[in-house]
Structures are given as C-alpha cells and as structure tokens.
Amino acid sequence: MESILLVEDDAMVRDLAESILSNCGYSVLAPGQVQEVGSMYRKYPGRIDLLLTDVVMPGISGRELARQMTALRPDMKVLYISGYTDNAIVARDCSIPESGFLQKPFTPAALAAKGSGSARSSGKGGVNNSASFGGKMKIPTKTRPF
Domains in the chain, start-ordered, CATH in brackets? Predict the structure, then answer.
C-alpha cells in the first residue's frame, strides 16, 4: 500500500482529502498541526511515496517543508495544493511546476487524477523528484469541489 503524507492547515480540506485518498486505497498520514509533521514523519517506519502539502501554512511554507522532507527521503514525490493564485505563489518565492500543483478548490476526481498521474517537483532548493507517483487511484464519483 502506498503512503501519502498530507500536510494541510485547513482542517476541513485536510479531512476531506484524507477521506478521498483513504477511499482510493492509500495509507494517509495527516497530522492535525503543521508542527506535528516532523515527529510523525520520523516515527513512520514505512516508505512515504508522496508529500501532499499546502503551499502557504503558518510557520513554514510547503516549499520549505518539501525541501526538508525530501532531504531525508529523496525518492518521495511532492504535490502542492493552494487556494492562492499563481501570482501570489510567485510573490512568496514558491515557483512550483504545473505538474506538481493542484489549485483549490479541487474536486475529488481532480485530486485522484493529479495524485495518480505525475506528481513531480523540481526547481529551487534541491527538490527534484521527476519520476511519476506510481499509484492508481480509483476516481470518486462525487465531483463537488472543496
């Protein structure tokens, strides 16, 4: 079973994404607070295949979190999510490749497609995971965005 580390500071979005991903057959680690990520990450004995992280969070950006996490597990893929516009993300120095980004609000089908397609990241800070995330998600039938 493939594992996803889901880091999202909005509890409603986090809970919905966790539910969708779990229903698709993934093992999902979803800390309730951004500050819990490091501890949960270090204690998890298995492989984490994908970091699914919000771009803008209190205390740390998704980009910086990805730098730290992939330094420890270089084979982990990264998929960024954000409700901010592209201009706001660029202004925060978070240039993110389109292939590794999902705009909020998104539908369950969009999350499934992005997660099972090619969750890739490259660019600044040494985060360069170009291989596709290998999961094959079952696309949920509900398509209401969240």
Answer: 3-126 (3.40.50.2300)
